[in-house]
Design brief:
Elements (H helix, E strand, L loop, with lengths): L1 H13 L9 E6 L2 H11 L6 E8 L14 H7 L1 E5 L9 H7 L7 E3 L5 H27 L2 H4 L5 E2 L2 E2 L2
Parallel strand pairs: 1-2, 2-3, 3-4
Antiparallel strand pairs: 5-6
Helix pairs in contact: 1-2
């Protein structure tokens, strides 16, 4: 876990946070899911992230922070966590209720088993979710004046 944490923090500190972008999506597949979790807890990165997609066959991990009490709610509203259909959390009603809480994100039961099959099964759904989030924001952030080229940007995108 320490190596994953160091790697994710390094990638965030030296690459991702430096981009002049506010529509960054993170994807954690298998063991990388833990990396996404530790990044969310250890770095103030919510403002630059547009969403999180995870594919999980192992242990589900809660995302919660004593420093940022809003993190769990943000994670629930901005994530899709696809969990294998044979995962232990689906075998017991109480466990299923537990993983529907906000600290586990928006948990989706996959009919497929295995990471590759799950990603193939949900590829179109994930792409649609990402596109809907990006297009919803761009529709809300543009005005007719911004859509005209005023010399400050290109096609409604302002420079600077």
């Amino acid at each position: 876990q320490e190596q994953v944490q160091q790697l994710m923090n390094y990638l965030w500190d030296n690459f991702l946070q430096l981009y002049d972008a506010d529509e960054i999506f993170l994807m954690g597949v298998g063991n990388a899911y833990l990396g996404v979790k530790v990044l969310l807890i250890n770095r103030d990165c919510k403002s630059k992230l547009f969403g999180v997609v995870n594919f999980v066959t192992g242990n589900l991990r809660p995302v919660k922070s004593d420093i940022d009490p809003d993190l769990s709610l943000w994670y629930k509203e901005n994530s899709r966590v696809y969990v294998a259909g044979d995962h232990a959390c689906w075998s017991d009603h109480d466990l299923t209720k537990k993983v529907q809480k906000r600290r586990f994100g928006t948990v989706v039961r996959s009919p497929k088993l295995g990471l590759n099959k799950m990603m193939q099964e949900h590829a179109d759904e994930v792409q649609g979710w990402i596109l809907s989030r990006v297009s919803a924001t761009s529709r809300g952030d543009t005005t007719e004046e911004e859509d005209e080229d005023d010399g400050n940007g290109i096609g409604g995108v302002r420079a600077g």
